[in-house]
Amino acid sequence: TPIGDDTYHSKNSSDNLLKKRRLYKEQSPLIEWKLIKELGDGAFGKVYQAFNEQRKEHAAAKIIEDCTDDELPEHTIEIDILSECNHQNIIGFYDSYYHEKKLYIFLEYCTYGAVDNIMTTLEHGLDEKQICFIGYEILEALDYLHTHQFVIHRDVKASNILLTQTGQVKLADFGVSAKNSYQDQKRNEYIGTVY
Predict the structure, then answer these.
(1) What's the pLDDT at 192?
(2) Which of 87, 153, 155, 162 could form a disulfide with 170 if both were Cys (CB 3.0 to 4.6 A apart)?
(3) pTM for the whole thing?
(4) Which of 69, 155, 173, 184 does the annotation list as catalytic?
(5) Domain containing 163: what range?
(6) CA–CA separation, 101 vs 1, rounded Å?
(7) Same structural domain for residues 123 and 28?
(8) Residues 62 and 143 in one domain
(9) pLDDT by residue (tens digit) across 125-156?
């Protein structure tokens, strides 16, 4: 059973792929989604490339294992934020499931992955033009988040900036983000990645 609405969500008028759904319980996502290969892992879980045969779409499946009912609310902030976002530079949200103590979040698949991995593969940094392009696109995403959603990302870094097959820049990983009540609300916590 879905929690929340199941309304249409689109990045733009020509994109009919993304659906706005909340959290499904008591249903295995592996009925609809096939996990293809592991893409990476982080502090909260692993990410897999997944495919939905019925919809004919690929996704990145973020899986958080051993997630108790008590821990669920702290992990669903990402679902809440992404299901309300509608911007070309923010990772798209497909589905989420909580099944057998695992939280599954299915997101837009970005073929080229994270900017930090791209730089490692190329064995050099980005040139000034590339940095300006990526920076501008991320600023567009942040402006949308701050102005329209009252969201503070709190962990903007190269590993959370992804590139699609067409070169579209996407801001991802909203796991430590905060949703404010109003636009200029201040936060006192220091959260994110320390270098």
Answers:
(1) 55
(2) 162
(3) 0.81
(4) 155
(5) 113-179
(6) 16
(7) no
(8) no
(9) 899 999 999 999 999 999 999 999 889 988 89
In the residue annotation, 155 being an active-site residue is answered as yes
Rounded CA-CA distance 35/23 in Å is 19
Query: Residue 187: its pLDDT value, please?
Result: 52
- Give the model's pLDDT for residue 195: 53
Last residue of a domain, one of 89, 108, 127: 108
Q: Which stretches of the chain score pLDDT less than 50?
A: 1-21
pLDDT of the residue at 95: 92
Cα 12 to Cα 16, 18, 35, 52, 113: the distances in Å are 8, 10, 28, 22, 22
The answer to whether residue 192 sits within a structural domain is no
Bin 143: left if φ > 0, else alpha if -120 < ψ < 50, else beta.
alpha
State which of 91, 108, 125 marks the end of a domain: 108
- Asked if the structure places residue 21 within a domain, the reply is yes
CATH code of the domain covering residue 175: 1.10.510.10
DSSP code string of 123-147 = TS---HHHHHHHHHHHHHHHHHIII
Q: Buried b / exposed e across 86-119, counting CB within 10 Å, b at 16+?
A: bbbbbbbbbbbbbeeeebbbbbbbbeebbbebbe
Binding annotation for ATP: 62
